[in-house]
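Exercise 7.
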Amino acid sequence: MAYRSTRLISLDALRGITIAAMILVNFPGSWDHVFPPLHHAQWNVITPTDFIFPFFLFIVGVSIVMAYSGKMDAPLDKGDIYKKLLFRGAKIFILGIILGMIPEFDFSSIRVAGVLQRIAVVFVVCTIMFINLGWKQQAYLALALLVGYWLAMTLIPTPGIGQVVLDPGRNLAAWIDQQLLPGKMWQGNWDPEGLFSTFPAVATGILGMLGGQLLKSNLKDTDKANKLMVVGLILTLWGVLWAWFFPINKNIWTSSFVLVTGGTAFSFLGAFYYWIDIKGNQQGTKPWIIFGSNAITVYVLADLLSLVFYQLPMGGKSISEHFMHGAIHLGIMAEIASMVFAVLFVFINYIPAWLLYQKKVFIKL
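Solution. The predicted structure, written as tokens, is:
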């Protein structure tokens, strides 16, 4: 556990909104009745839901800068930092695997890849980069990752197929994961959080670090906000142009996807920073700050609480099934009922987040 220090309010608010959105789209009343914007894109193109995970990885990058910048001013004991860093990354990684096993705990079908696992890898790799590289080197490395991934995915034929394809389960990233990724994969023969697609995901984290270093620069506050938004617009447009050659695709985390989502995150961070930290408009931000202060803890709690609301049988049905049945019986549109349940579930998760915040308990997983 760690007690709260001075933090960037806008960053906590943006992190909180992102976590709340993640819970909202992950836990509808029924997966059979979900509005299209609340679904991930099946393959190419992008939906609002597809922005959520890259936003969180971007925020991880910003948070690294905020957490480690002060340590850079003093003599570094890198061995001690690496030890703590790897321990924290391992905790998050293992927790992701455990959550994926609940409730059956079937060790024969462990999924090694996953959301928390990718967060852990990006956090560890990006932190090591931040400690050892300047911002220009970080930017060059992000560019190299994106260009290298693009060239590999569009020039190297998939072994066994003999040609370049970007189809589900048949692309180079899927083939690499099939050879190297232990355990089961989310979609049978491919995984959206696989090994190879984690390389461009690291670039998403680096973009966050670059945004964080802009916030820590000596520029005037308004200039920081303006630069964040302008850089975000440029990156987004660059990503849209790149999509002509490498489609926007979350499932394989394409380079165009990184730029579109990372650029949008840049702009959101700039807007939040201007509105909340510079202009002081904090009214209405408290719920998001509460969510954002214990973000990963809330994400884990949502997974655990879902066992009660989605799997625990009560009279032959789960709570979510009872809710959907009752709402539809009252004449409520199924998609609306499903979304209302998801919103209620977000509020339910707000309760433990609020209690932790009130007790000034901030769990550092």
